[in-house]
Amino acid sequence: MKRQKHIVQKVINLTPETFIIRLDRGDFQFEPGQYVVIRIPDQNKGREYSIYSGINDDYLDFLVREIPEGGFSRYLRHLLPGSELDVEGPKGYFILDEKTRKGHKAMLIATGTGISPFHSYVRSYPDLNFRVLHGVHFADEAYGRESFNPDNYLLCTSRSDGGDYFGRVTYYLKENKIDADTICYLCGNSEMIDEVSTILEKYGLPPENIRTEVFF
Ligand SMILES: Cc1cc2nc3c(=O)[nH]c(=O)nc-3n(C[C@H](O)[C@H](O)[C@H](O)COP(=O)(O)OP(=O)(O)OC[C@H]3O[C@@H](n4cnc5c(N)ncnc54)[C@H](O)[C@@H]3O)c2cc1C
C-alpha cells in the first residue's frame, strides 16, 4: 500500500468540534468515496479518514470531528501549516457504481462527519441524480451544505429544530417511503447504518441497493 508524506496547508475550523484539515495533494489519485489512513510520521499511530475533497481539487481535504477523549483527532486539529503527515492509501470500496454515476436515482444518508464521502461524490460528479439526508445534532453541523443542491438536501437535526426536519434520519425514513429501486449509500455510525438498513429492507430495497461505510 502506497504511503507518502503530505504537508498540512491549513486547518479550517467549522464548529467548536469539527474542522477541515487540508493537505497538499501532490500526485495522490483516488476515487470519490475512498479513505486513507493518516499517520503521525515515524509512528505507527494512525486513523482512517474519508476524503472530503473532489477528484479535481488540487488539495486533499478531510472533515474531522474532534473527540475530546480520543488521542488522534485532537492531534490533527492542532497541527500548524507546514507540518508533515503520512498518508496511506487510497483504500476502500465505498465508491459510486456506474449506474449511479450515469444518473440512476440515489439517496445519500449520513450522520455527522459521514457526509464526507458524499461531499467528495458531488464535488467530483456534479450531475448525479441524488438526494441527501444528513443527520446531525444541531443545525450548525450541516458541514459542506453549500456544495449540495438545496433542492436535494435535507438536514435532520435531532437536538434542536433549526434544520429541515426535527428528528433523527431514522424517524424521517420511517415517515417517508423510499422507492425500492433507489440506490442508497449510508455512512456514519454503525447504529444508524443498522437501523436504516432495516428500514430500507422493509421498503423492499434489495441488498445490492444498500451500500455502507461504517466510521465507528
Ligand atoms: C473507513 C473510516 C473512515 C473514517 N472517516 C472519518 C472522517 O472522515 N472523519 C472523522 O472525523 N472520522 C472518521 N473516521 C473515524 C476516525 O478514524 C477516528 O476514529 C476518529 O477521528 C476518532 O479518533 P480518536 O483517536 O480521536 O478517538 P478514538 O479513541 O479512536 O475514538 C473514540 C470514540 O469516538 C467516537 N468517534 C469516532 N469517530 C467519530 C466521529 N467521526 N464522529 C463522532 N464520534 C466518533 C467513537 O465512539 C469512538 O469509539 C473514520 C473511520 C473509518 C473506519
Automatic annotation (TrEMBL):
PANTHER family: NADH OXIDOREDUCTASE HCR, PROTEIN RFBI. Residues 1-97 form the FAD-binding FR-type domain. This is Ferredoxin--NADP(+) reductase. GO terms for molecular function: oxidoreductase activity. Pfam families: FAD_binding_6. SUPFAM superfamilies: Ferredoxin reductase-like, C-terminal NADP-linked domain, Riboflavin synthase domain-like.
